[in-house]
Amino acid sequence: MSEHAAPTELHARDHAAFLEEVHSFEFWFQSVEGYLRDHPYGEDPQCDAPQPTGGERDALVATLATYCVGETAALEGASGMIGFAPNRQAKIFLATQVADEARHLEVFLHRMRELGVADPEAAIGEHGHRSLFAFKDKLLAFVEAKDWEASVFAQNVVLESMEFAAFAAHMRDSDARTASMLEGVLKDERRHMGFGENDLGRHLARSPHARARLGEIKKELDSLVLGTFEESLHELGMPRSERPDVGRLYLEMVDRLGFRR
Asked: What's the whole-number mean pLDDT along residues 137-157?
């Protein structure tokens, strides 16, 4: 080994040791501590930007309500999957994801209250997009059936890719308070997607026949994802010409596992 090479370089460890590390609570803590310290509810306390008002405020409230539907789906999905995860490392990682998703839900609810929403739960029921509620039902049906293959695909690949694409697009044009919150959430989403891609990549290498089934599930879920994008981006006032870019980002991320429309 070169004198400059760290003993824990990725190529120097076997895969089991790598998974043991990256699925651990210790790794999770080191990952989140840097961007959560001194950021109550995910926001930069030094940010003195004015709160959105009028139509901009109403659009943000509606969008946050839909984000809460997605985070609730991931929270309930990840917690349910712990009981039938295939190994200890996956169970531990999902426990860290439960903490992440609960925090995301909490910060979105807090942001709604900052915007003057007295009853965020009622706002979720009123403004949450029907397509995403339908997605949540399908994900939780996979979880209830203890279908690991479909659950991890729907949650850690499709849902996380959808949220990553939506949050990244929103952050570019959002107010500074919301942008600081979304920045931290995006860092968590990258970690969740990495788990899903790694787990399913190994699964598909062992069971290539599973690709056809997951491809059919993807086709069914894509319409719900793209429908949610269209509603959310319309609410946020994104020009129609730019909306397909968000859908393409989502599709490209899911396609990393070799799926094509």
From this structure: 97
Whether pLDDT at 80 is above 80:
yes
Q: Is 157 exposed, middle or buried (0-12, 13-18, 19+ CB in 10 A)?
A: buried
Which amino acid is present at 153?
F
What's the predicted TM-score (pTM) here? 0.84
Please say if the pLDDT value at position 4 is more than 70: no
Closest to 174 in 3D by CA, of 85, 49, 70, 41? 49
Are the C-beta atoms of residues 254 and 157 closer than 8 Å to each other? Answer: yes
Q: How far is 225 from 97, CA to CA, in rounded Å? A: 21
For the chain, domains (ranges, CATH) are 20-28+51-257 (1.10.620.20)
- Scanning the structure block, which residue is given the tokens 């870019």? 245
CA count, 13 A, side-chain hemisphere, 188: 27
Say what the pLDDT of residue 233 is.
76
User: Count of CB atoms within 10 A of residue 38's CB?
Assistant: 8
